Amino acid sequence: MATVELRFSALPEHVRTARLVAAAVARRAGVDEAVLDEVRLAVGEACTRAVGLHRSSGVSAPVHVSLIEEEKQFSIEVGDEAPHTVPGDKASGAAGEAEVDSEEDDMGLAVISGLVDDMEVSTGENGGLIRMSWPTTPPNAVLT
């Protein structure tokens, strides 16, 4: 099992680099060429979401991306350290602004779920994580 770790400052210009690295590692891991655009787009959306959460929350920690090559699948984890509202929590502050951020967040997650069949999202007070997975084909496999 090989893993590549990326950490980058929460700046939009770094999202492109994360997309390119993810596509290169996915290709090497054996993800089907026809799916690489979806990998690129999903990673871009997840990283853009994390950057936005960091910037709107004033978090200076880097966004982290793990590219994990397993036996029959390739997974990407995009993590942020922005505080997420836990269901049932009555957060004080600007409720209107929180609703707008929540709508943008929901839209980003909807885009990702349209691109990725296997996706998990977890959030909490200390940040969130999006895990996306794609099947791989062994390098010497013969497709019939």
Commentary on this structure:
- The protein is an alpha+beta fold and 144 residues long.
- It is built from three helices and five strands; from the N terminus they run βααββαββ.
- The protein has a five-stranded antiparallel β-sheet, covered by helices on one side.
- Helix 2 packs antiparallel against helix 3.
- The radius of gyration is 16 Å and the shape is globular.
- It starts with a strand and ends in a 9-residue tail after the last strand.
- About 9% of the residues have low confidence.
Ordered list of secondary-structure elements with their pairings:
Elements (H helix, E strand, L loop, with lengths): L1 E7 L6 H15 L6 H22 L5 E7 L3 E8 L14 H21 L2 E7 L2 E9 L9
Antiparallel strand pairs: 1-2, 2-3, 3-5, 4-5
Helix pairs in contact: 1-2, 2-3
Write a brief structural summary.
By secondary structure, the chain is of the alpha+beta class. The protein is built from three helices and five strands; from the N terminus they run E-H-H-E-E-H-E-E.
Query: What is the terminal-to-terminal distance?
Result: 27 Å
- Radius of gyration equals 16 Å
Q: How many strands appear in the DSSP assignment? A: 5
Helix-strand string: EHHEEHEE
Strand content: 25-35%
Mean pLDDT score: 85
State the helical fraction. Answer: 40-55%
Q: Kindly report the spatial arrangement of strands forming the biggest sheet.
A: 1-2-3-5-4
Structural class: alpha+beta
Low-confidence stretches: 88-100
Helix count equals: 3
